[in-house]
Amino acid sequence: MAKSFFQTVDKWMVIVNPNAGVGKGEKDWGKIYDFLIKNDIPFDSVFTKHKEHAISLTTKFIKKGYRKFIVAGGDGTLNEVVNGIFFQKNVPTTEFLLSMIPVGTGNDWCRTFHIPFKYKQAIKVIKKEKSFIQDIGKVNYFNAANQKRRYFINVAGMGYDAVVAAKTNKDKEMGRGGALTYLKNLFTSLLFFKHSDTEVKIDGEKEGLKSKTFSLSVGICKYNGGGMMQLPNAIPDDGLLDMTHIKKLGKFTVLKEIKHLYDGSFIKHPKVDTYTGKSFQINSKPQIRLEADGESLGHSPFTFEIIPKSLRVVVGDVEKE
Predict the structure, then answer these.
(1) Beta partners for 210?
(2) Which pairing describes strands 131-143 and 146-152: parallel, antiparallel, or unpaired?
């Protein structure tokens, strides 16, 4: 990666998603703005106008010299800013400092790093600028015949996870959101869901793991789905991706196990396997869908890779872990 050559700006750039939290981003921006001013945090700000706008905004402001970014939004907006940082090649990614004021419905990345959900407390954490260098994931996937690439900071879900995320994202577009909406979709999606035959290859091995699959999660951090601990053993800076593989389950078993998703104890179930690796290759019949950090993307086949210790982020009291 080329050495940084832009003149830097000694301010935060706040990227605000007005639609985050089903309109909370716009409604609460005045309050967030006031807290930033009261804490003497120097910043400029910009609002996103459409899906993936934060990607282009991030690359634009990187060229203007900004190296510190605050996301006032949800996990999807955070994902877009991460992609803006990693798609550009002029500035090493470790030169950036990324932080978050959680406004979204899930805010799952914040849970791993103890970022408070209350704006005032989250901004106090940002002011301290206590940082941590975490790993970032990269996934190659397909949209029809076109191969695409996406970076992710938290968790990518496939199969059932992606189906639920897609339904929830459609609800958000129609002004419906929140944890209850996600739970509703978690239950209703079971009615028509069909399992797939998958093969998972870890770190380039020749023989893959084959099974009927309900869902797959690959990630760096622990939580997704609004507080579900899908990857309870994940360590954000160990240079490894974690995978949780849930094999074919009956509908009643799924309903019975949902409560165990929130404390991570579901991984003890005999139909659940966990793995770690620097890369995963995943094929399936029929094709399965993908979401990354809650953003609905394309379909299989997938290739996942880890980019070790590649992004500095502002964290809370991680010693609590």
Answers:
(1) 199
(2) antiparallel
Tell me which CATH code domain 9-129 carries. Answer: 3.40.50.10330
Closest listed residue to residue 311, CA positions, set 68, 57, 46: 68
DSSP structural state of residue 2: P
State the Cα–Cα distance between residues 187 and 193, nearest whole angstrom.
11
Burial of 144 (0-12, 13-18, 19+ CB in 10 A): exposed
Tokens of 100: 């978050």
Q: What is the pLDDT of residue 321?
A: 41
Q: Nearest Cα to 279, choosing from 208, 229, 193, 213?
A: 208
Q: Which CATH number fits domain 136-310: 2.60.40.10, 3.40.50.2300, 3.10.690.10, 2.60.200.40?
A: 2.60.200.40
Q: Which helix (H) or strand (E) holds 303?
A: strand 295-314
Residue 237's pLDDT is 98
The predicted-structure confidence for 218-269, as pLDDT tens digits, reads as follows 999 999 988 999 999 999 999 999 999 999 998 888 888 888 999 999 999 9
Beta strands per DSSP E along 111-257: 131-143, 146-152, 155-159, 196-202, 209-219, 241-247
Amino acid identity, residue 273?
Answer: D
Our CA dihedral for 78, 102, 258, 169, rounded to 10 degrees, sits at -60
Convert the pLDDT of each residue in 181-231 to its tens digit. Answer: 777 877 888 878 889 999 999 999 988 999 999 999 999 999 998 899 999
Name the residue ranges covered by the structural domains of the chain. Answer: 9-129, 136-310
Tokens of 116: 């408070």
pLDDT in tens, 105-114: 889 999 999 9
For residue range 137-190, list pLDDT tens digits in order.
999 999 988 999 999 999 999 999 898 888 887 777 776 766 677 778 778 888
Which residues have a Cβ under 8 Å from the Cβ of 112 and sit 6 or more positions away?
A: 154, 221, 222, 223, 234, 236
Q: d(Cα 192, Cα 68) in Å, to the nearest integer?
A: 44
